Amino acid sequence: MLTSSSIFIILLSDIIAVGVGIFAGKYIFKKSFDQKEKEAQDRAAEIIRNAESAGENIKKDRILEAKEKYLRLKTEFEEDANKKRTLLQSNEQKLKQREQSLNQTVEQNKRRENELETLKNNLTQQLDVATKRREEAEKSLQQQVAQLEKIANLTADQAREQLVDALKAEADTRAGSYVKSAMEEARLTATKEAKKIVIETIQRTAAEHAIENCVSVFNIENDDIKGKIIGREGRNIRALEAATGVEIIVDDTPEAIVISGFDPVRREIARLSLHRLVQDGRIHPARIEEVVAKTRKNIDDEIVEIGERTVIDMGIHGLHPELVKMIGRMRFRSSYGQNLLQHSREVAKLCATMASELGLNTKLAKRAGLLHDIGKVWPEESDLPHAILGMELAKKYKENPEVCNAIGAHHDEIEMTSILSPIIQVCDAISGSRPGARREMMESYIQRLRDLENMALSFDGVEKCYAIQAGRELRVIIDADNVSDEKAGMLSFDISQKIEKEMQYPGQIKITVIREMRSVAYAR
Hints:
Pfam family, one: KH_1
Keywords: Cell membrane, Endonuclease, Hydrolase, Membrane, Nuclease, RNA-binding, Transmembrane, Transmembrane helix
Number of strands: 8
Structural class: mainly alpha
Subcellular location: Cell membrane
Function: Endoribonuclease that initiates mRNA decay.
Oligomer: single chain
Shape: elongated
InterPro entries: HD/PDEase_dom (IPR003607), HD_domain (IPR006674), HDIG_dom (IPR006675), KH_dom (IPR004087), KH_dom_type_1 (IPR004088), KH_dom_type_1_sf (IPR036612), Ribonuclease_Y (IPR017705), RNase_Y_N (IPR022711)
Strand order of the largest sheet: 1-3-2
């Protein structure tokens, strides 16, 4: 049986054991907690370092993106500023030219006022002289009447009748002489005035020449882009040519790709599409078709904008929207290397100037001049000459009959019924014949004229043949002894049919067959 002292010792030993266990557990727990706390701190430090590194990378990427965007915006701003600066300079030049033209007009008006004043004074003097002569004639007539009454014992009525008959005969003689002299003077004066008007019109109209080529050059930064444009086994370049309708020439020319095609609209669509594809970097057939479709729509919008800007600049109002669109399409067409829109604008200015000199409607003349070649830009194929087609389009869109006739008659396809028609014809010839306005390859041009003449010379009865007016007219001189008038008419038709079948030429060719009959005899 345990005593109280033994029980106390046992309890004390248990208490000591429990205390030692508690102290040991606390020490172990603290050591484990410190270790976990250190691991957590290390992990947190590593996370912070990773976050700082990622943040620095993101910051660098954002700075690079911001710099690229800044450079792109700066480039766009500089391009826009250059365009506006160029437009401003062009407007300043136009204003200076208009100011010079106005000054010349003011000086001419002053000279004309002086001439009119001098003419008025001369007429006043001539009127005074005529009045005096009339009074003298009346006195002479009275004296003659008195003498006739005394000598012939005639009555006043009988003497008056005889005198009237004599005066009528003399007046008829003088009138015939005066009319002949007046007609000769009027003919000489008219020729002189016509030359003066044409010369002044040419001098007062500024000519802007733009020679168009059949190729466009697309510049690239490095030759590595050529491989992307060609694509694997040439699929990209084939897709681009099929979508745009032009020929893409990628050769050894450094940093350049040549776009070849006779249609300027297609070349421009191909050039802009290439520019967008190279900038985007994604070049494959599907992307090419998408970009070409967007570019074609942008070009259509640009054509309408060009047409609207042109009619506003020329001061022409009330044109049908389709005609405005065709005027914009002229910007991308050329005739013998001459830009069609610049040519039409120049013809319009020449017509307005000439109409003002002749006292005609300048607005109507300017309208007809701008629309005279509208048939050349009709998008659909037609067998009609461009002048007739342009006249039909003008009638369709309710243009003035004088404008329609001027369009149709400016190449003599129809009869001229208005004074405006010959003005359009003359101004069209002036614009096209300015030195440097049009250009052809000399060898092909000469060869085409030779082929044209040789083709006509191949027919029986043709003695001589001349291609004139830049190959637009063929003069055929035939043997009158072997070819009759009826056969001459058939000959012109046969020559025209052969030319249509065997030759390629712009516009139309007029065939004129000349049959001259000469009778020769000798007096011995």
